[in-house]
């Protein structure tokens, strides 16, 4: 894994244009800022092209997508193609509503998405694998997250980062796992959104999206473990602040030392 | 008071669909998550029915309501009636603008709202009691919060949770008070929004809305006292994180020990 | 500098109506609340007049402005003129997109803005000074932030607060500097937004906008230094909570003791 990307990110300070949901943008922006990237959010179609022109990456988060803003999302992606900027898609709760699933599939059809980052339910919904429609049960062989991630990556010809207790990163053929975790990360609303935007930051500084997704997952999972170390498993409020603290100083060596 | 609802909530993990304001959704979502419920926010009318179908409760918060989203609010409530899901209304600042008051009254006219949660000014505006229009003065007999809460509950045939230094919960006839408090809770923006959504979570797991509102008020007020214990009364920033920490572990016994 | 305005603010509890961006409203509202002001956010044009009628100040933040909400912004400003309430403008990233620059300039043309608060890039874009269009380099004489601030204030006939490592406050002729700083303040997303709204709170309690802007800058910069004192320079997450804590108790003497 090219963990040197972390130093490269801090040297380059990539700009990440986010179409964010309205629940977690503050946490995501603070997380990107803490790590060393530069976040900007937008809600206006008429400035999309200007922003994408100067950005390193576009991150599309469907957490509170609505029909007033779909033209903005399409313009961000159209400009991303025009200026050869990578796109990361976070298909939040895409398994919960037909509206979100439809938007996500249209995006995947219309644009070359570099990386999809979601949890097992979201990735399974996109992969449209048989077992997914019967519900996800991580305990059965059929519902192996690695297989779901590969099916999704193969279907849409991109990199998939399926995050959970173990993160599975795949380009459809190769598979990389990150086994670091803390219960405090899923307790923190927006930790998945942040992971997508962090992957977005790394995707913005290398053409190797598979490596970028690995590094993004490793950085957040390991920093989470480090931040959680002195805390009890219920201290989610305190953890969120400490996670931001640690994102600013975590380095390659810290990660290599604990990476699973 | 049926404090066993707290254990039941954690066992059941109710889904709470929130039409949230855009100021405090992160805090509200983290608070619900910390307590053991499952929050989701939406801003799209076309996914409202899908979400309400799978939810336990709908919480409508008028904090930043606008005419682009009133159809979403009406659809959420229409679907709530269709699928027999309870609705909690937070009439934020309904006394401050005619627009908000009008929306709140139309909602109360069109839909069976299970619980209204507001402060004394908001509840008085809805109750349209004579004294309210002259301004609220907690020191006069006429402006007794308990009477205002009862007038509001009687007028709209629902449960009212009027929160403040003392919380008053009433179904129009019975009255329950929660006397626990800390100055740090009102110092935290969104603590009222969170209370409404917590009541929403409890309303989603029992048909007894009066009990659910009592338990919601008791849980937040007591957890606030517990979180505030080692802090000075100015440490609102630190308190917000500690409140989330404590919401995850507070149990029936902790609450019974300090409940006033 | 009239630091007595801080006591006056806490005695008067000015209402600050914010057209906020959707990234940092929670932090801004908590900061205003912690300091002793009363924040309200809105996203509905039909309630703008009602809110401005009862407010002390209107703060317009362009951080996520879009064409759905420009009528709201114009109505807020129109009502502010009608009711003689001051307006503070935060031209977020106005140098990054033509859309934002156009909106900011139209606002400045149509309404008497009391104070513009921005960073050197934003103020230079508004000032349209030659050197600004070549990029800002703080090291060259041409790009002197004080000169940029003066040019902007002269152009639009208002007070400009250009914030950065040093804050420059000017009415176009006089210049006041605040030299207090901590690296943790720029690490905190929304600290600029909060500064604009804090200046808004002070502008709402005095006709001397130049003094109000000075006090606003001094209060935030000095409170930042105080909050940062026991922290390492990477602890941005912890700092944000401590900043809120300290905003509640910081007083005139604390500020005078460390003001540079």
Automatic annotation (TrEMBL), chains A, B, C:
E.C. number(s) listed in UniProt: 2.7.1.50
Family: Belongs to the Thz kinase family.
Record field: catalytic activity: 5-(2-hydroxyethyl)-4-methylthiazole + ATP = 4-methyl-5-(2-phosphooxyethyl)-thiazole + ADP + H(+)
Superkingdom of origin: Bacteria
Described purpose of this protein according to its UniProt entry: Catalyzes the phosphorylation of the hydroxyl group of 4-methyl-5-beta-hydroxyethylthiazole (THZ).
Binding site for substrate: 41, 190
Entry keywords, A to Z: ATP-binding, Kinase, Magnesium, Metal-binding, Nucleotide-binding, Thiamine biosynthesis, Transferase
The protein's name in its UniProt record: Hydroxyethylthiazole kinase
Pathway, per record: Cofactor biosynthesis; thiamine diphosphate biosynthesis; 4-methyl-5-(2-phosphoethyl)-thiazole from 5-(2-hydroxyethyl)-4-methylthiazole: step 1/1
Species annotation: Agrilactobacillus composti DSM 18527 = JCM 14202
Molecular function as annotated in GO: ATP binding; hydroxyethylthiazole kinase activity; magnesium ion binding
Residue positions binding ATP: 117, 163
Organism lineage string: Bacteria, Bacillati, Bacillota, Bacilli, Lactobacillales
SUPFAM superfamilies associated with the record: Ribokinase-like (SSF53613)
Biological-process GO terms, alphabetical: thiamine biosynthetic process; thiamine diphosphate biosynthetic process
Cofactor(s) demanded: Mg(2+)
Cross-referenced InterPro entries: Hyethyz_kinase (IPR000417), Ribokinase-like (IPR029056)
């Amino acid at each position: 894994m090219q963990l040197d990307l972390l130093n490269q990110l801090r040297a380059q300070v990539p700009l990440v244009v986010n179409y964010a949901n309205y629940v977690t943008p503050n946490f995501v922006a603070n997380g990107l800022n803490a790590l060393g990237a530069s976040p900007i959010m937008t809600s206006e179609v008429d400035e999309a092209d200007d922003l994408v022109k100067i950005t390193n990456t576009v991150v599309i988060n469907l957490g509170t997508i609505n029909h007033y803003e779909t033209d903005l999302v399409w313009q961000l992606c159209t400009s991303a193609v025009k200026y050869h900027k990578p796109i990361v898609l976070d298909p939040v709760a895409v398994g919960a509503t037909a509206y979100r699933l439809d938007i996500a599939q249209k995006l995947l059809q219309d644009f070359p998405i570099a990386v999809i980052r979601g949890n097992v339910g979201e990735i399974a919904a996109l992969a449209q694998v048989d077992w997914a429609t019967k519900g996800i049960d991580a305990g059965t062989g059929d519902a192996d997250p690695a297989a779901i991630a590969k099916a999704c990556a193969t279907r849409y010809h991109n990199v998939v980062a399926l995050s959970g207790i173990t993160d599975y990163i795949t380009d459809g053929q190769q598979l990389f796992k990150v086994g670091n975790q803390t219960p405090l990360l899923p307790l923190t609303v927006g930790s998945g959104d942040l992971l997508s935007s962090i992957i977005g930051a790394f995707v913005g500084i290398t053409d190797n999206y598979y490596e970028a997704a690995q590094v993004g997952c490793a950085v957040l999972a390991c920093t989470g473990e480090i931040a959680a170390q002195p805390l009890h498993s219920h201290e989610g409020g305190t953890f969120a602040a400490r996670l931001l603290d640690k994102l600013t100083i975590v380095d390659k060596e810290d990660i290599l030392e604990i990476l699973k």
